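re: ur question from the group chat, yeah i did fold both. here u go
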Amino acid sequence: MNHDPLNDVINTIKNASRIGKSEVIIGPASVMIGRILKVMQDYNYIKSFEVIEEERGGKFRVELSDTINNCGVIKPRLSVKNSNIERYESRYLPAQDFGIIILTTTKGIMSHIEARKLGIGGKLLAYVY
């Protein structure tokens, strides 16, 4: 069985949010996870995050907001064209214009809303609403 750090991060955030914690420590830190947290911060799903430097890898301290109802990792990491994003939006999000799908594109990690504006597709990573 392979280890999935992104799944660990998303589940840690979801569980901490459900029990009402205001802050959570996530490790190990990586560039990809930092960019995903930045997208979540841009859409106000988390208040802030910072890197805690340690000897091996470091960790993130994430300050949670009360706006997360559910979040999860999309597996397998499906490749989607810009024209097909709407299909996955209806599959993973409860309503149109409610929540975001995070995907990785040739322009970096972004939400499905930004990818649609740029007219590009990518690989689905996670959803948050």
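okk and heres the other one u asked abt
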Amino acid sequence: AANVSFIATANIGTEYTSTRVLDRALMDRFEIIEVDILSLSQEEDLLQKRYGNKVSTSLIHAVADIADATRKEWRSEEGKLSTMISTRMTVRVCELLADGFSLSEAAEVAIIPFFDASGGADSERTFVKQIIQKHMATEMKDIFNTGNDASNEAIPF
């Protein structure tokens, strides 16, 4: 039919559940365009365009920087992470921020569950929490606080 186009996307790789090698004949039917992970500035620009009127510039920068840090760690040869924060995840965090969630609350919902907690202090989850904590306001409490000191409530991680 005239003026009809089909666009297909694929998550290819072992990180995705039930992925299979695509048949060569099927792949030959499509033009393949590989899209790389966004850079820090590209991520920040995208989030600013979508949420700049609802989320502060400093929070948008923090979200983009947290994602960038996990991506660099994920790509490094001796990286501590088996996955990274995707653009889909940064968009979700900004949606939560726009709805009134704090950065720690948004991270708890949209980031932390994607990282393995096994290994305790050496876990991927702890590593990501440390990255996130660097972007918390200095007056906020330590997200690793597990004590019962009522004057020092822990951030809900």
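fwiw on the second one: The longest helix spans residues 57-75. The CA atoms of residues 88 and 130 lie 21 Å apart. idk if thats what u expected
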